[in-house]
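$ fold --in a.seq
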Amino acid sequence: MLDLSAGPTGVIRGAMRQTRLIVVLAAVAMFLAACNRVDQGSIGFWDIFWSMVVFFVWVLYIFIFISIFMDIFRRNDLSGAWKVIWILFLFVIPFISALVYIIARPKVTAQDIQMATQAEAAQKAASGVSKADELAKLQALKDAGTINDAQYEDLKAKLLA
């Protein structure tokens, strides 16, 4: 029952609570109806559809936990004890601890900044080298006698390919 004495805001909040309750009850009723049809021996479109949805959710669930485990072990700002605590919480209360970890994890850590700086430096170094520079280095190696003519031609062909 809506409480009209609470004003427009109270009425809206009350309606939203009732709507949420109806949606939850409808979802539970659909689930129970689907469970009731399990032993009928026929598979319909909705059985396959819900099986695909459940499979997708499980794959997503597993992917999230693998990502969280990798992030925990990769981080340098967590000590070994904190890593053990997070892993234990993920095994004991998995869904809640995964949500808490995702919310509590800093957006950018010092390690993230360091990795971004290294990637940027590597990209600058790679873009600064041209094929002409590589050919000049090969010619210098050939002139110094480090590589012979056949090796020079083979490396030149690989570089220009």
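$ fold --in b.seq
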Amino acid sequence: MRRTMYGLAVGAAMIAVGLGGRVNMSSAAGEKAKAGTHAEYPLDSLTGLRAVNAKADIAMHQGRRALHLLQSLGGATLDASGESMAILTGVEFKDGTIEVDIAGQPQAGATPDIRGFIGIAFRVRDKGERFECFYLRMTNGRADEQLRRNHSVQYISAPDFPWQRLRKENPGEYESYVDLEPGAWTKMKIAVAGTKARLYVNGAEQPCLVVNDLKLGETSGQVAVWIGDQTEGYFSNLRMN
């Protein structure tokens, strides 16, 4: 049986616990929902979010009000991957599923090798310095070169396992292909159990990437939406079970 843990932070509106319940970024401090709780975060406001190396605002994208992220690094990057995120400050997650609608593309003026990196970070610890992550390279899904297509989805683990190390030491094991369209709303779902995780895209019944050895081990932590170097990202309707 999967176990999901949430610590739901102080917010502004209401809390509903139980299957089918809805959590609107609020509750009494320190309160935890029971295993199996369904929680929804529309991401149509900045309440309960903490940006890390990112500029966050709320904007319209393809007719939908959504969280909008751009890098805000002051001329320097956090590390070689240039990661940025917005953390759900009141959530403690171990096992379960995380789903979110994302739309990503290279930001205006990005260098030609930027692919539009966007995804979900989970079990986030140490103010964003340690985390597991699945992300998409949005311009690779329909590239003319097959090798680029093979690098459409990626798993990484910060700080010790960036994509460069994983690709060098285990070619092809932590990345795969899936059809993607830059800027279009795309559904991501990850299923986490212990040291195993699976990534599903656009409602597919089968995962496009399977990881059986999450590098941080069987831990827990916060949940975040994530963008990589020179990427513009939109996020909506985050759901956890």
